[in-house]
């Protein structure tokens, strides 16, 4: 059985559908107030065990870990999995978490068979995409990566995003060139037929640093593309507001993104990695109907591979997993929800589609 903490939240629900409908697992969904879920979720979970769970109550969480062979935490709230694992009876835990939670990873005991953190789209798949492309090239030299989305922030996602603005290892408005970080200018693009601005924010974080070292890149640029006039307006004062009142800042970002979704069109997410080396360029594009669908798919793939012992033991983030191919093969082979396109371009400039799949 696979347990899903936050199983009827926006991300957990997407993961639950894939684990049950695609992989055929028996699952258990756990979270706060199961009676408050909507009719669509009630129908899906009708024949599935649902458990009320307070993640701050470690006795309750420990019972879930003992019952399920694999557990994924889709809440976005960090758990001290090391402290939880110390009190577990029986077999070792297989654990996946969409949050990065690097501090918990450092404290893990031998009670954990495997623990994969940042098991989502960004960070997570965002590192595996360039590594997958690099495996097909002789010498990668330059990487361009972009993440673009329109959707409504949950409270947990808004909190995680705002906290990311203060990470010591995250730098804004920079790119990697000639072995060091150099400043760049952001760009605001007006799009015909779209009311809001589209602004590009170059950034460099822990995952970007890992990729520059691992792939030995000469150049690299990572772009976060923000869409929506309400969200962009809120972000101009986000750092100051979050310092003064974190809860108010989280609620302001959540409301701004909801307004942009209401007036700006349908939700979507698109990630693109373009890797150049010599006379060859390889690209990978991943699209989904919402950020939650893509993160839920990544979490479900991670849980499936952990459950089947197809990922290494130990504690690590998904982006740094030694085995890239099992994850990418699952991503390329699914039937609905996410579109994946991989292409190559030789010196002649003619593009050849190598692989195309829909998740």
UniProtKB/TrEMBL annotation:
Cited InterPro entries: NAD(P)-bd_dom_sf
Superkingdom per UniProt: Bacteria
Gene3D superfamilies documented for this protein: NAD(P)-binding Rossmann-like Domain
Name this protein carries in UniProt: Saccharopine dehydrogenase-like protein
């Amino acid at each position: 059985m696979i347990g899903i903490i936050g199983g009827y939240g926006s991300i957990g629900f997407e993961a639950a559908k894939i684990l049950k409908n695609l992989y055929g697992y028996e699952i258990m969904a756990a979270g706060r107030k199961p009676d408050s879920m909507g009719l669509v979720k009630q129908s899906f979970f009708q024949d599935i065990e649902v458990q009320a769970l307070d993640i701050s109550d470690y006795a309750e969480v420990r019972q879930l870990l003992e019952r399920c062979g694999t557990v994924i935490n889709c809440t976005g709230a960090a758990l001290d999995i090391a402290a939880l694992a110390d009190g577990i009876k029986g077999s070792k835990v297989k654990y996946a978490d969409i949050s990065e939670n690097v501090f918990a990873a450092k404290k893990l005991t031998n009670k954990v068979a495997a623990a994969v953190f940042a098991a989502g789209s960004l960070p997570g798949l965002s590192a595996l995409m360039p590594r997958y492309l690099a495996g097909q090239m002789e010498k990668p030299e330059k990487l361009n990566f972009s993440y673009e989305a329109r959707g409504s922030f949950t409270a947990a996602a808004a909190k995680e995003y705002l906290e990311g603005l203060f990470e010591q290892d995250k730098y804004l408005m920079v790119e990697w060139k000639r072995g060091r970080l150099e400043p760049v200018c952001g760009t605001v693009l007006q799009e015909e037929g779209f009311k809001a601005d589209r602004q590009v924010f170059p950034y460099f974080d822990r995952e970007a640093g890992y990729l520059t070292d691992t792939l030995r890149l000469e150049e690299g640029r990572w772009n976060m593309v923000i869409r929506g006039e309400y969200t962009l307006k809120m972000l101009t004062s986000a750092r100051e507001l979050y310092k003064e009142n974190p809860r108010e800042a989280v609620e302001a970002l959540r409301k701004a993104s909801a307004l942009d979704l209401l007036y700006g069109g349908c939700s979507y997410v698109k990630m693109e990695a373009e890797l150049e080396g010599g006379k060859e360029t390889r690209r990978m594009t991943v699209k989904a109907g919402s950020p939650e669908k893509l993160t839920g798919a990544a979490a479900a793939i991670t849980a499936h591979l952990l459950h089947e012992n197809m990922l290494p033991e130990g504690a690590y983030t998904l982006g740094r997993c030694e085995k890239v191919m099992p994850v990418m093969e699952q991503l390329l082979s699914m039937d609905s929800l996410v579109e994946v396109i991989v292409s190559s371009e030789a010196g002649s400039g003619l593009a050849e589609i190598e692989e195309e799949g829909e998740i």
